Amino acid sequence: MTGLQPMIRLRPATPPDLSLILKWDEQPHVRDVSGDDEWNDWDWGNQLGRDVPWREFLIAEVDGRPIGFVQTIDCREEESHYWGTDCPEHSQAIDIWIGEADELGKGYGTQMMRLAFERCFANPLCQHILIDPMADNFSAHRFYESLGFELLGPRRFGPDNCLVYQLTRARWRSGAQNA
């Protein structure tokens, strides 16, 4: 990559974004990494219009052009208890996608994650961010490790074999995400 990288901006996802999110949700590169959990065939129409204190749906934009999606959740407060009931209080989890395959490999995911870190750690009580890439998604493992996440171990979420990674506030503050 040469030259200056365009800056990403995150904005709240709203019901008018539904058709775009549904399109992205069907993209092979998104479906391949999302597993068989609630993402595939999820009721986006109802969820986008629902404002809950434990979740943010965000659209990533470059120069006003949508290129991706970010979700942040409070792991303990999230109503499906996807992460279980024993996760540390105020822990956050992040999910991201780049919407179109031709936007992959441009550094947008890194910028999106760093903006998501800032949002999560803006809560002074948040001490951990968790992610759960599929166990066989080796490029995602390398990506998250490059951002400072440390492997906690394997975990099965429904039918999906995942690896759980954690980024602590202390590690984030130390600059590990810039390694």
Automatic annotation (TrEMBL):
Keywords: Antibiotic resistance, Transferase. It comes from the Bacteria. Gene3D superfamilies: 3.40.630.30. One of its GO terms (molecular function) is N-acyltransferase activity. GO terms for biological process: response to antibiotic. The keyword Amino-acid biosynthesis does not apply. Residues 8-170 form the N-acetyltransferase domain. PANTHER family: LYSINE N-ACYLTRANSFERASE C17G9.06C-RELATED. This is Putative aminoglycoside N6'-acetyltransferase. It comes from Hyphomonas polymorpha PS728.
